[in-house]
Amino acid sequence: MTTLELIATQFVGTLTLRPYVFGFLAVFLLAASRDLGWARAVRFLFWGGGVALAAELASTRVGVPFGLYHYTGETRGAELFLSNVPFFSPLSFPFLAYAGFCLARVTFGPTWAASRGGRVRTVLASGVLMMLLDVVIDPLAVYGDRWFLGHIFDYPDGGLYFGVPLSNFLGWLLVGWATVGGFVWAGESASGSPALGVSLYYVVLLVNLSITLWIGEWFIGGVGIVVHLTVFLVLYAVSRVTVGRWSAQPLSVPVTSSGGPTS
Q1: Cis peptide before 65 (omega within 30 of 0)
Q2: Residues 6+ positions from 76 with CB-CB distance below 8 Å
């Protein structure tokens, strides 16, 4: 078997083992192509995947930025690996960063890119929102041998948050900021609707929460629900203060001189 044939076979193996990742990726491509345009969507994908791969290669060797962890390699030969990192893992970060980016844009409204301050605020919020998904994703991944993810990695020293080191969340912040920040400061624009990207954010969250509860990790699931319900309420409040983007009704109704609403 030639090298290309081997790569193709292992790529098919990744599709077979990780169909949920490619399902999320398909939604990302649909959402981002309508929102950013196809060329920008592809650039976002490759840039975000490259940032994530570099971070994973560094973390599995020197522990920066996610903290030290190791992939077990149990599925090597059955799915595609990039060095010691399964291909599907860095592929996941771009659509998670994009989902956070969309939720931040909905929160701050369509003028997010009108000023330097607006862009900075949106980039910072995007990284935080992406990291908050990991409040559910990584604790669930630690128990991968109890669902269809499998036992694919280990934190050799464990971690304070349900077996996940706090450095991992800092790493997610940095990757989210680098992905969205690099896209924004490269002069890329987002002129379409972020609505489908917001849906992607909450579908990813719902899937991970559902699996967490399905395997019986009720405390982890409960913490995730409380965290994200709180985040949702904060985002809603912020959006109401800025431009009321989440309400079908205006924040105030003009009143006529007779005391009734205008038509």
Answers
A1: yes
A2: none
Give the separation between CA 192 and CA 138, rounded to whole angstroms: 31
Task: Determine the straight-line distance between the first and last CA of the chain, rounded to whole angstroms.
Answer: 73
Distance, CA of 5 to CA of 192 (rounded, Å)? 39
Work out the number of other CB atoms within 10 angstroms of the CB of residue 81: 18
The interaxial angle of helices 166-185 and 88-108, nearest 10 deg, is 70
Burial code of 193-207, b = ≥16 C-beta within 10 A, e = fewer?
ebebbbebbeebbeb
CA 150 – CA 71 distance, rounded (Å): 11
User: Coil, strand or helix: which one is 82?
Assistant: strand
3-state secondary structure of 70: strand
Cα separation of 124 and 82, whole Å? Answer: 29
Instruction: For residue 153, give the H/E element and its range.
Output: strand 153-154
Chain segment 165-222, per-residue pLDDT in tens: 999 999 999 999 999 999 999 998 888 999 999 999 999 999 999 999 999 999 999 9
> Are 155 and 165 within 8 A, CB to CB?
yes
User: What's the angle, vertex CA 139, arms to CA 233 and CA 58, rounded to 5?
Assistant: 110
Nearest Cα to 172, choosing from 218, 213, 135, 215? 135
DSSP conformational letter for 259: S
Report if pTM > 0.70. yes
Diameter of the chain measured on Cα atoms: 84
